[in-house]
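Lab notes, practical 5.
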Amino acid sequence: MSEKQAGLLSGWRGLVGRFSVAVISLTLVAIVLTGYLFTLIDDLRVNRVVNSVLDEQLAHLPNTALTSVELNPTTKGVSIIASVDTPQILEPYMAKVIEEHLSAQLGQPVQLFMRCKVTKVISATGSTNIRPYLNLDGKVSHVQLTPPMALLQQAEQIAREALAGQDYLHLDDISLVELDSGPVLVMAIQSPREPSAERVENFQKFLQERLQNSNIQVGIRRISTSEVSAKGPVILGAAHYGALDEGQRQIQAQIESLLTRSIMDKSNFYVQAIDAAPAGESWIVRGLVAGPNVLSPADIKALQDAVKRELNQKVDLKILSRVELEVGEEGYQSPPIR
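Output from the prediction step:
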């Protein structure tokens, strides 16, 4: 082999060597990128499946929105934290159902944690519009709200409208129970007084008319509450927090004092609370009284006449009169306010 041929062969060997290193390097990079690409595709698939299952399950709930999802791979599968805006804390069984759906779709064990942020969604007075479910992108989901959940959402809107002018009533929560006889809406309210069956019936008819469903039934679950200001137990908010001038304050004190003395002049009667608030040219007065018997309509008229006679003030007096006393060896005492 000539010297020229040997040099040419050596050059080719060097070139091939350099290309071999480059090819090997590119192969290694391709393997790494391919692995990363597969991981990325798998992560995207997992994200898509998780979001799809959560949307499908949560879209059936009223006033609920998925706000964020956190995925954390573990040695045993995947841990998921789903944050949702919801009108009430989701029940553990619901999280279990969603968790099982996720595990079946992903083909691996799933630990699901639901982070619930309690929110309430209302619309304008007179409206029964339903806000659709919003997915993680803030877009309206194609999954339709089920009829029971739509009914629940509309009923809550109407109930809040109806109670808007009732200062002493507050709607805490509303739930739906499906029975063979039809839907039953159970409403938890805060109120110092037990609602009468007549008022519940009237509200039930009102709901039936607004929702055009005569099968709806209403149940009221009362949470007993009491409110006390520096003046005392609150019966009429206007008597405690109203913008009364000095003259009105004096008349208020005189009316309340006269009625308290007149009632407690009766043997073993106790005035637990009494509130007077101006209403135009007259006064509204409400009170809580406990005693050995109930005050009669004649007693109420006599008390109103006494205020008119002694203070020259016209009053509309109504008393919640209870037959109740606390009894001890020392005698009778006023029972606890409830």
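Observations recorded by the TA: The radius of gyration is 36 Å. The helical segments are 3-58, 92-106, 147-163, 197-211, 237-241, 246-264, 297-311.
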